[in-house]
Amino acid sequence: MKTEKEKFLDGEPYYIMDPELAADETRARRLCKQINELDDLQTQEKDDLVRKLFGSVGKSPYVQPNFRCDFGYNIHVGDDFLCNYDCVILDIAPVTIGDHCFMGPKAQIYSADHPLDPTLRGNFIGIGHPVTIGDNVWLGASSVVLPGVTLGNNVVVGANSTVTKSFGDDVILAGSPARVIGKKPAAGCEADQILREHLFVED
User: Fold this and answer.
1) What are phi and psi of 27, to 5 degrees?
2) Where is the Maltose/galactoside acetyltransferase domain (predicted)?
């Protein structure tokens, strides 16, 4: 019979109060606390701790306080990952982020989910759905990416947006739920103007 941690790692429903998983969460909280307490001059110490917390890390990660996550070892980031203030990644399932990605202040990525059945939910049964984010993605301030979402390369998500479904490459998203408001956010495009014009405008 599988342990609850084995179920968890295999992406199956699991008991969220399992002591072994609780110990893993405590470890992650302690590492987050250490990372968040370092100043900007302690770059090597912070780099070492981020690599200890995350499952895999590319070159030059930059994580600002107050970062929070569930386990850490389910987070995989590429080169030049920039995580601004007060970001949250709930890594119940794998969260994979490509190269040159930015998380704006208070941006959040959730791979954690709960059953709709109130009996299962009341018995502390949880499940995760992986989140995958491509290269050159910018999640604007206070944006939220929900469980099971995949974002392609060169995607911009406007501030305060909620991404509830997957999108491909080269799109600008905004709104709650997020929708495509522009395309091809490449060098020289007018993405900032598009975001200003559409972010808080209803159809």
Assistant:
1) -60, -45
2) 5-59
Residue 114 annotated as catalytic:
yes
The residue among 77, 170, 85 whose CA lies nearest residue 131 is 77
| Phi, psi dihedrals of residue 57, rounded to the nearest 5° | -145, 135
Distance, in Å, from the CA atom of 85 to the CA atom of 36, rounded to the nearest integer, reads 10
Could you give the CA distance from residue 185 to residue 25 in angstroms, rounded to a whole number? 37
Q: Which two tokens stand for residue 118?
A: 């109130």
Using an 8 Å Cβ cutoff, are 82 and 58 in contact?
A: no
Closest CA to 20 of 6, 34, 31: 6
pLDDT digits (tens, 9 = 90+) for 25-84: 999 999 999 999 999 899 999 999 999 999 999 999 999 999 999 999 999 999 999 999
**Residue 192 token pair:** 């900032």
Q: Which domains does the chain have, with CATH numbers?
A: 4-198 (2.160.10.10)
Report residue 174 as tokens: 């905004």
